[in-house]
Design brief:
By secondary structure, the protein is α+β, with helices and mostly antiparallel strands. It has 3 domains: about 130 residues, no CATH class; about 80 residues, Dipeptide-binding Protein, Domain 1 (Dipeptide-binding Protein, domain 1, Alpha-Beta Complex), CATH 3.90.76.10; about 120 residues, no CATH class. It has 7 helices and 24 strands. α1 runs antiparallel to α6. It is flat and about 110 Å long.
Amino acid sequence: MCGHSRQGAGLIRLLIIVVALFAVSSPVLGARLKDIATFGGVRSNDLVGYGLVVGLPGTGDKSGSKFTVQSMANMLESMGVKVDRAALKPKNVAAVMVTVKMPASARPGSRLDATISSVGDAASLLGGVLLMTPLKGVDGNVYALCQGPLAVGGFSAGGDAASATKNITTVGRIPGGAVVERSVPFNFNQQTDVNIQLGVEDFSTAKQVTDTLNRALGGDFAAAQDASTVRLKVPPRYQGDIVTLMASLENLEVRPDSRARVVVDEKTGTVVLGANVTLSKVAVSHGNLNVIVAEQPQVSQPGAFAQGRTVVTPSTQLGVREEQRRLILMAGASIQELVDGLNAIGATPRDLISILRTMKSAGSLHADLEVL
């Protein structure tokens, strides 16, 4: 077990070194504008609806799900069927929520993928069919209708003593199951300016994007509003044809910058160091003190015909082991020297986390430390 742990720790250290070497030796590569930013007016709208899935093989909601029984009764009564609610058994029916993302470019007749999630105590939605469900936006208006058989990427089976389940059986999808009935009132081509929202908040990146856009358009059409927003005025030659403008700009190459950052995942022991991480002169010593105390009482048993009695004699074994770690002076201006210094003292990923946090507290680590 210890061998596997040491091997796993070695692999993680090797991964950190490889990432560090790549970051130091490789030039900064450019990224397309559309990969680091989003454009105003190009967004999706969330739709949601409540519906019923029928045709389940006894894996639907239990009798205690009163809202499912009420929904069944309301549906049947709207179809002219008079029912006794107390007699309804919803084991073949499940109450579900239907969610859809509708892009701003969707028009009546467009088909969208829908996600169906159980809201009751159904065991599985496998084999079910969603009845027609209206999907509403945040304004309360109906924008789409959804209906069709579910595709569930899993199964669940079992008996009284054993059961087997693979993946999630209470969530399914209907590819193209939602039909748009009403579009969002928005005309993309009629905008006079477009907001470009960057994926990172960085003034250098915002300035670089602004300069790149102005060079490409041959004028001062772009202006940075803050660290993550650039406003672009539509040039006269592109008025009423913003799609062509965006197609010519979204592939422009920029080199995004960001603050130095160290990301630590304590659950898995993963440490990721950004290329701009540096540190001041600092001396690091890291070691562990292990104290092992083991109680092994000895039992003294008298002979068969002796007049004595059984006596328990305590016995304690004490072991102390302290790892000898040298004091290492690390003074670096790059991630490579930081990694080399930490590996010089034999730090494991768990040790790295502790050392980095202590360095940050001492003010020697010049980077944002983010712990997941």
